[in-house]
Amino acid sequence: MTSTFWTTIERISGHATDTREWRGSLVDCWDAAERYLSKISKFADRIDCPWPGGENCPRRVIRHEDGSFRAVCGDPAVLCESLDINRDEIQIRELDRRKLFADVATALDLAVTAPPERQASLLHIGDNQVAAGKSFPVFAALSSPRAPLSKADLLELDRRKLPFILLVTSLRAIEHDVTSFLSARGGRVLTYAECLNFAAAPGKGFVPVASLADL
Q1: How far is the CA of 118 from the CAs of 21, 24, 101, 123, 156, in angstroms?
Q2: CA angle, 172 then 175 then 179, to 5°
Q3: At residue 120, what are phi and psi to the nearest 5 degrees?
Q4: Residue 75: what pLDDT?
Q5: Rg (CA), the chain
Q6: 155 exposure class (CB count in 10 Å sphere: 0-12, 13-18, 19+)
Q7: What is the pTM of this model?
């Protein structure tokens, strides 16, 4: 199942954090999820703590002259123990939306007219071909409960007066009235976890749970 992957995407602000946090959250699916987490030329100067502390929480990353790293608690009470870490653990990884949406479209056998935009969080990722000359558009979103999609966000979708599907990370990532709002316009809200599983190794990407038409 891919539910842990999608809930982690929802939780991590800006879809970017250090490798250590990604791996800790995705321990059950890291080998599959790593494909979508691109390393960038930034490194964390703080890493998470076991529990919230004082004003100097979380632990600060210190680089020693020999090139090693250590995370040190700055709280006067020293609530969290110091931790030896390596360069890879503190390197920032960012969600590659383009690769993610492209793999989702491939798994769902969508006809794609243009590559997904790298930074887009809501876009048309392709059309489901029901039969010759008959199709419906599929839209994908990466919103979160902190900033759920509203009706206003969806007013400009180019539905072409066709039935359509909106894929979301979870129903918490849309406002409560969005499902009924889209239903009245021929739309259906589905979560990625309802539609997709990770491909079994050595495969990469996703495999469909069922066809979109059946769902």
Answers
A1: 23, 25, 9, 11, 20
A2: 95
A3: -70, 145
A4: 75
A5: 20
A6: exposed
A7: 0.88
